[in-house]
Design the sequence.
């Protein structure tokens, strides 16, 4: 007969075996904790604490009551309409788990392009370096991709040309080039290296993504000439080799949000799986492509995971009571797909915005991190997931602040409809310190 | 491993700052080494306790960040593993309390917990799943004691240190927990 102890041993070991060896995510330590580690400061602090302890006890009790009341007030104001609680303090370790740097575009230039790119510290928002496009390029286009660890990025530089015509000024972009941006934290200096991607590929690209290792660049392309044949090209940045997947007659591989720079079209897992979004006749699909093969058919080598409703090729649409998603991120582990979703219900008209995670294996909903139930119709402002950790438990998102309950779609309420770049976990919603405004600047940063 | 790069600052530092930098670098190295050696084991422990891989990873990450912050206060670095294991258990306890509050507030099991269990169920057999569900129905202290005893094979003094209780309490808690688990499994088997 099997004893309870034996059953317990077997079950706990089976549960533990679901965590493979060498699968621990990277450790991120908090730089802000530095001061506490000085032995002398710690010793002096302890001596002072001991001496004052007796005198401080009544004060501490009073302070504790005040803190409890304040915390209750904060919770009351923060929680309604949002599952993720905004907690003051204790954010240090959460911010330390994020990639250390990100790239944000800065300075207005024509048609949403930017005069410069900034490397910023994630935990503080401090600008560590600013760089302009190398000559003869003059602007950065609003598309940036990163490896997800805050070390390497790809930016798209271009030249803005203009000439006077009878009706005024006519302008156009030429000579687009992709650059690999590496940030050296020791020197506080970003290094730009031109990538050998053919100009026609860059001209026709609808999105690109740097792999987690920084060694491959995936480019989605919709050739401007000939019949519709969406392509995904994967360039090996070390060897220059390129693999191509094509889908003759397939819908374009492109973002669901028709604003340049908003949303990821492609997203990598560390094992070489690439998630891509493709418009279809019934709406949009999310598929997973195994890029370890030699290239070939985009249809045959990829697997459909999510199918969202919409119209035949234009923008995002929704159907009542049906969940529909925006842009999708694949977690580095390749186990989950993360995206902002919308559900609209009627009687009364209600919009539910959420950050939803799906199993990459089955396409089934796994969990939601935070949701916003709004009275009225979702007016089209887009939440978006910008970065995810290995398991999808921590996201950097563009989202509405907690507590938003009502949306009246008119210009007078714009102030109540501001989005912020934040860190979202199942339990926390923390504003990213010093982040660019997501309300006024749609060129969202990349990690 | 993301070791803070503050040590690169050199010019204009006082001796105290330099000593502080060295202490930080040493702490970061030691914590990183400990993480490399024990992170998976601790994530597994948290998975057994919580049944959710992603939350387990967060709990372990927090535990190591806490260790790094308090490295200077650690009297004996050889006890760092014990410290971080206790922190992980503390984190699991907080998470379970948080879940319980959520369940009470919503009067139902949170979707994320169910979903995580469902996903794990695919990987675990029915028999193991039943045992784990019964384990999670036990009071927190009993569950901890059983996991430390029968999953980690810790001795009573080691369990006592991790849980912050006396060896006698460990003995009685383990015994009660095992009896309660047996009863729950009997009910489930019927």
Sequence:
């Amino acid at each position: 007969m099997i004893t309870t102890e034996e059953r317990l041993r077997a079950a706990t070991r089976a549960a533990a075996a679901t965590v493979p060896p060498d699968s621990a995510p990277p450790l991120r330590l908090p730089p802000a904790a530095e001061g506490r580690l000085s032995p002398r400061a710690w010793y002096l602090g302890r001596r002072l604490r001991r001496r004052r302890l007796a005198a401080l006890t009544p004060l501490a009790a009073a302070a504790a009551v005040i803190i409890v009341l304040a915390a209750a007030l904060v919770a009351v104001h923060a929680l309604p309409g949002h599952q993720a609680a905004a907690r003051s303090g204790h954010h240090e370790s959460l911010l330390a788990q994020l990639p250390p740097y990100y790239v944000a575009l800065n300075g207005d230039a024509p048609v949403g392009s930017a005069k410069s790119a900034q490397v910023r510290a994630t935990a503080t928002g401090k600008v560590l370096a600013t760089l302009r496009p190398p000559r003869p390029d003059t602007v950065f286009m609003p598309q940036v991709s990163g490896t997800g660890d805050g070390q390497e990025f790809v930016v798209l530089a271009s030249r803005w040309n203009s000439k006077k015509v009878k009706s005024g000024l006519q302008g156009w972009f030429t000579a687009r080039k992709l650059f690999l941006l590496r940030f050296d934290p020791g020197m506080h200096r970003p290094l730009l290296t031109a990538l050998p991607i053919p100009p026609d590929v860059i001209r026709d690209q609808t999105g690109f993504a740097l792999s987690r290792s920084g060694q491959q660049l995936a480019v989605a392309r919709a050739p401007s000439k000939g019949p519709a044949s969406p392509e995904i090209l994967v360039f090996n940045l070390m060897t220059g080799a390129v693999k191509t997947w094509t889908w003759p007659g397939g819908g374009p591989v492109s973002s669901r949000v028709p604003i340049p720079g908003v949303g990821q079209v492609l997203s990598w897992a560390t094992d070489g799986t690439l998630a891509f979004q493709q418009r279809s006749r019934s709406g949009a699909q999310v598929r997973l492509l195994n890029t370890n093969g030699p290239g070939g058919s985009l249809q045959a080598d990829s697997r459909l995971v999510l199918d969202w409703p919409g119209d035949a090729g234009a923008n995002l649409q929704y159907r009542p009571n049906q969940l529909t998603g925006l842009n999708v991120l694949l977690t580095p582990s390749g186990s989950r797909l993360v995206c902002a979703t919308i559900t609209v219900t009627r009687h009364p008209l209600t919009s539910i915005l959420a950050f939803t995670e799906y199993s990459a294996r089955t396409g089934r909903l796994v969990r939601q991190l935070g949701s916003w139930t709004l009275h009225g119709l979702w007016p089209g402002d887009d939440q978006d997931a910008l970065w995810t950790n290995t398991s999808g438990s921590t996201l950097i998102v563009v989202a509405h602040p907690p507590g938003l309950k009502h949306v009246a779609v008119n210009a007078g309420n714009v102030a109540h409809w501001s989005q912020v770049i934040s860190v979202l976990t199942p339990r926390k919603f923390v504003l990213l310190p010093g982040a660019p405004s997501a309300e006024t600047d749609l060129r969202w940063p990349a990690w | 491993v993301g070791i803070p790069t503050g040590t690169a600052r050199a010019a204009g530092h006082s001796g105290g700052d330099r000593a502080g930098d060295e202490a930080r670098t040493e702490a970061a190295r030691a914590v990183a080494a400990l993480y490399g050696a024990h992170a998976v084991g601790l994530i597994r422990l948290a998975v057994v306790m919580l049944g959710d891989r992603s939350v387990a990873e967060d709990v372990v990450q927090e535990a190591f960040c806490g260790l790094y912050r308090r490295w200077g206060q650690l009297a004996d670095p050889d006890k760092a593993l014990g410290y971080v294991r206790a922190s992980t258990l503390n984190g699991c306890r907080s998470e379970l309390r948080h879940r319980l509050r959520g369940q009470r507030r919503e009067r139902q099991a949170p979707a994320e917990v169910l979903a995580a269990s469902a996903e794990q169920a695919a990987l675990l057999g029915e028999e193991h799943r039943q045992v784990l569900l019964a384990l999670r129905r036990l009071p927190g202290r009993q569950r901890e004691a059983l996991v430390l005893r029968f999953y980690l094979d810790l001795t009573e003094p080691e369990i006592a240190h991790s849980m912050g209780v006396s060896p006698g309490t460990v003995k009685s808690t383990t015994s009660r927990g095992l009896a309660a688990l047996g009863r729950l499994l009997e009910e489930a088997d019927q």
About this structure: Confidence is low (pLDDT under 50) at residues 32-61, 67-89, 311-316, 408-416 of chain A. Chain A touches chain B through 58 residues (CB under 8 Å). The first strand of chain A starts at residue 101 and ends at 108.
